[in-house]
Amino acid sequence: MVTWTRFGLLASLMTAGAAPAAAQAGSEASAKPTAPRQSTSAPAAGASSSALIARGDAVYHGPGNCFACHGSKGEGLVGPSLRDTEWIHSKGTLEEIEAQIIHGVTKEAAKSGIPMPPKGGATISDEDVKACAAYVHSLSQQSGS
């Protein structure tokens, strides 16, 4: 799975924005019009937009109340850390994180014996779950470990 870093995403966006300008300059310089180049860069499957991650941050620290167990920075309190690449109940893919938020973790399945209720016990929407999963996934991608 390809992980987008901020630099890689910025470089991709800059490349995508430069392609139409270069094509326009080339068509003005010659009599033959040229088609704009298409960017071959695309977000990796499972990658999340910065807007979705920002919304997830707001859910995590707001109505989702995730920070109460996982810490304000995802460092772990009663619940495990979300900032590393070690996942207790899954492999940590975006899809698995989303499913875990939806279904929770039973007391029997919880390694610590402390359950996580579905949606953390909050009444958040399915869209909020997707956003929160994107935010949590981004935390583990920042760890570099």
In short:
With 145 residues, the protein is an all-alpha fold. It has 2 domains: 1-43, no CATH class; 48-142, Cytochrome c-like domain (Cytochrome Bc1 Complex, Chain D, domain 2), CATH 1.10.760. It has 5 helices and no strands.
Descriptive account of the structure:
The chain folds into two domains: 1-43, no CATH class; 48-142, Cytochrome Bc1 Complex, Chain D, domain 2 (Orthogonal Bundle), CATH 1.10.760.10. The protein contains five helices and no strands. It has helices spanning 6-29, 50-61, 67-70, 94-103, 126-142. Helix 2 (50-61) packs across helix 5 (126-142) and helix 4 (94-103) packs across helix 5 (126-142).
What would CATH call the architecture of the largest domain? Orthogonal Bundle
User: What is the number of domains?
Assistant: 2
How far apart the termini lie comes to 15 Å
Major beta-sheet overview: none
User: What is the ordering of alpha helices and beta strands?
Assistant: HHHHH
- CATH topology assignment of the largest domain: Cytochrome Bc1 Complex, Chain D, domain 2
- Give the proportion of residues in helices: 40-55%
Q: How much strand?
A: under 5%
> How would you state the average pLDDT, rounded?
74
Task: Point out poorly predicted stretches.
Answer: 1-46
Number of strands: 0
In the CATH hierarchy, what is the class of the largest domain?
A: Mainly Alpha
CATH level 4 superfamily of the largest domain: Cytochrome c-like domain
Structural class: mainly alpha
List keywords for this structure.
single chain; 145 residues; Cytochrome Bc1 Complex, Chain D, domain 2; 5 helices; 0% strand; globular; disordered N terminus
